[in-house]
Specification:
Elements: E1 12-13, E2 16-20, E3 23-25, E4 53-54, E5 73-74, H1 81-87, E6 91-98, E7 104-105, E8 132-133, E9 136-143, E10 149-153, H2 154-157, E11 160-166, E12 172-181, E13 186-191, E14 213-218, E15 226-237, E16 247-250, E17 262-264, E18 270-279, E19 288-292, H3 293-306, E20 312-313, E21 316-320, H4 323-328, E22 337-342, H5 347-351, E23 358-362, E24 365-366, H6 370-378, E25 385-392, E26 395-402, E27 404-405, H7 408-412
Antiparallel strand pairs: 1-2, 2-18, 3-9, 4-5, 6-9, 6-11, 7-8, 9-10, 10-13, 11-12, 12-13, 14-15, 14-17, 15-16, 16-19, 17-18, 18-19, 20-27, 21-22, 22-23, 23-24, 23-25, 25-26
Length: about 425
């Protein structure tokens, strides 16, 4: 995650910062060899561990104990050994040899004083003329098909001069960038091997719920094949990293170098890609963020097929519905997206959307906020029809429109 060691973006709240977690260093690291499954088959699902529970009587004197309502106390936490053995061969280490103009001159490291942000504090003090040294950015990734297609973070491969991928076996191969999408921080690489490669499958992140066990695999601080475990803390987090933020928040420890590594459930499916942390120092404090697999599926498919992402567009600017607005509009709650403006010659204008309309649903699914509307519209293929549930002048109605492609100037912005 990026500190390339500097965070690509910062989210400050109460003095903390959300940092992307790719690490950069001069030393190399190779993933240790491990027992490898059949190379021409997908990772088999792991056996979920059964947790035995007891409900000891803890009622107070004179109060009957209802054991069915007591909190279950586990005798044993789940073991992830089988899961790790199955999926680890599909997790790779990525080294980005930055372009020469992205290299960094030697800078002093002041003992006992404030440390300069990465990468300046990576180099020894040089009292002579500063010299330019190449910088290697490090991160993680995972193979998603036997042909060598790899998913990682965009900030891991940004400004690359060349990229290499180190497999679980220790073999290092050159990688080609198939495509990258900075707006979601997703990139797809391709390596060529002389045999089918082990891979992992993308799961359904929409079914993920807070409290589920997950594991993160990656190369934090250059320590290859590191496995950490935790639970899903929350879903749909917006940390200000991009316009389509909908991160999975986890408490599994992740650090610099974990960027691009998989987040997996106990059935061996990837439900997220570790991307950022909330930290005052760059180290894990148990608040990490992963891009959900459902978004990865859509973006990686576009990148693999065309090298870029095609997004839907309807041409409205929206704002949140405040409690006061909801009361004035006789809404049951303050969810939805209030249309603040309609751009000319767009699907929204052609369909008759007006400022003051409140978009309450899209294709039958509730719209909770303007951001959720933007994410959902972006995921619709241009040319498809979208059905908007709209509240206008206190009356519900349906507006149908044909989704257009997001213009290039909007993509750049």
């Amino acid at each position: 995650m990026n500190h390339l060691n500097k965070p690509a973006r910062r989210w400050r709240r109460s003095g903390l910062a959300a940092a992307l977690l790719a690490s950069t260093a001069l030393g190399g690291y190779v993933i240790a060899s491990a027992a490898q499954p059949s190379p021409n088959a997908p990772m088999p699902p792991a056996q979920a561990q059964q947790v035995q529970v007891n409900a000891p009587a803890t009622g107070q004197p004179g109060v009957p104990v209802n054991t069915q309502q007591q909190a279950a106390m586990p005798d044993r936490l789940p073991s992830f050994t089988h899961l790790v053995a199955q999926v680890k061969p599909a997790v790779v280490s990525i080294t980005n040899y930055l372009k020469q103009d992205q290299s960094t001159p030697d800078q002093p490291q002041i003992q006992g004083g404030p440390q300069l942000p990465f990468p300046f504090n990576q180099f020894p003090f040089n009292q002579t003329t500063p010299q330019t040294r190449p910088v290697e950015a490090r991160g993680s990734g995972f193979i998603i098909n036997p042909d060598g297609m790899i998913v990682t973070n965009n900030h891991v491969i940004k400004d690359a001069g060349r990229i290499t991928v180190t497999l679980d076996s220790g073999q290092t191969l050159p990688a080609k960038v198939i495509g990258a999408d900075p707006r979601t921080d997703i990139a797809v690489l391709k390596i060529e091997a002389d045999h089918p490669l082990p891979y992992v499958e993308l799961g359904d992140s929409a079914k993920l719920e807070p409290g589920e066990w997950v594991i993160a695999i990656g190369n934090p601080f250059g320590l290859s094949e590191t496995v950490t475990a935790g639970i899903v803390s929350a879903m749909g987090r917006n940390i200000g990293a991009g316009p389509y933020d909908q991160f999975i928040q986890v408490d599994a420890p992740i650090n610099e170098g974990n960027s691009g590594g998989p987040l997996l459930t106990q059935d061996g499916k990837v439900v997220g890609m570790n991307t950022a942390i909330l930290s005052p120092s760059g180290g894990s404090i148990g608040i990490g963020f992963a891009i959900p697999s459902d978004l990865i599926k859509n973006i990686s498919m576009d990148l693999e097929h065309s090298g870029h992402v095609t997004r839907g567009y309807i041409g409205v600017s929206t704002q949140s519905v405040s409690p006061a607005m909801a009361k004035a509009l006789s809404l049951p709650n303050d969810t939805g997206a209030l249309v603040a403006g309609v751009e000319p010659n767009t699907p929204a204008q052609h369909a008759g959307l007006q400022p003051g309309d409140v978009i309450r649903s899209l294709n039958g699914q509730p719209v909770k906020s303007p951001r959720e509307l933007a994410v959902d519209v972006a995921g619709i293929h241009p040319g498809d029809t979208a059905h908007l549930g709209v509240l206008r002048d206190g009356h519900d109605q349906t507006v149908d429109l044909h989704v257009a492609q997001l213009p290039n100037d909007q993509q750049t912005a």
